[in-house]
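Box 3.1 A note on notation
Throughout this textbook, protein chains are presented in two layers. The first layer is the amino acid sequence; the second is a token string describing backbone geometry. Keep the layers aligned when reading.
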Amino acid sequence: MFVFCRRLSRLGTIRRKLSTAALLALPILIFQPYHSLAQLAAKTARKVLIRIDPDYPQFLKNGHFEGRVVVEATVLPNGNVSKVEIKGGNPMFSEFASKAVLKWKYAPAPSQTVEEVNFVFTQTPR
């Protein structure tokens, strides 16, 4: 009986330690998401100084093909685009979108950034 009571006592000690640890960790859990949101909100897009529209070939217009392309442009500190990566959209238009973004010029910045660009290829102006 003594051993059983001793184990219950240890279990109570363990529970107290765990609840104390949980209370100490609570401020970290509460304030961490707000810190992450603030970092995401602080990101601002760089200003585009020279914007070249992508080609929309006549054979795609004649076929009434429309679509959207999302690309990520790696922009050097001097504003030149060094790399373009297709993130999604209609593959028929991705080559035209990436060629256009490679010709863009952004405002200078202290460091290299990655900018997301969306293109909509449509017959009617939006």
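The chain has a mean pLDDT of 76. The two ends are 81 Å apart (CA to CA).
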